[in-house]
Amino acid sequence: MAKTRRRFSPEQKAAILREHLVDRVAVSDVCDRRGIQPTLLYRWQKELFENLPSLFAPRSGSRLSALERQNAALRERLAHKDEVIAEIMEEMVAVKKTAGER
Q1: 41, 17 contact by CB (below 8 A)
Q2: Rounded Cα distance, 17 and 19, in Å
Q3: Can you give the residue ranges of every domain in the chain?
Q4: d(Cα 36, Cα 52) in Å, to the nearest integer?
Q5: Most buried residue among 13, 27, 88, 98 by CB atoms closer than 10 A?
Q6: Euclidean distance between CA atoms 38 and 98, whole angstroms
Q7: Mean pLDDT for each 10-residue chunk of the chain (102 residues)?
Q8: What's the rounded Cα separation, in Å, for the pair 97 and 102?
Q9: At what angle do helices 10-21 and 38-56 cross, to 10 degrees?
Q10: What mean pLDDT is reported for the chain?
């Protein structure tokens, strides 16, 4: 008869890892008490340390506001460029008109 696979919630995984890392309980004791394989505990620990940098990364809200500021700055530059092009076109039309009158 096959065993059913157990699923651990993120809270349960954190509690198990905390027990080992913070409370300094040996891996074998934690695994025996929780009924898990040591490889599973080490895999969770690896995932924990691989994902830690994202915890300290700036929040997406600040990233969004930075993108909005950049977008506004680019729109201003584009508007300024359009104004300069319009002025140059006016000058060019005026030069063509004066050259055509002579």
Answers
A1: yes
A2: 5
A3: 10-101
A4: 23
A5: 13
A6: 88
A7: 84 95 95 94 95 79 80 95 95 90 60
A8: 9
A9: 100
A10: 90
Q: In whole angstroms, what is the distance from residue 45 CA to residue 15 CA?
A: 12
Burial of 46 (0-12, 13-18, 19+ CB in 10 A): exposed
Provide the residue count of the chain: 102
pLDDT tens digits for range 33-59:
999 999 999 999 999 999 998 888 766
**Cα separation, 62 vs 92, whole angstroms:** 45
Q: What stretches of the chain show up as alpha helix (H) in DSSP?
A: 10-21, 27-34, 38-56, 60-101
Q: Which residues contact 42 (CB under 8 A, 6 or more apart)?
A: 27
Dist. CA 27–CA 38, nearest whole Å: 7
> Please, are residues 28 and 38 in contact by the beta-carbon 8 Å criterion?
yes
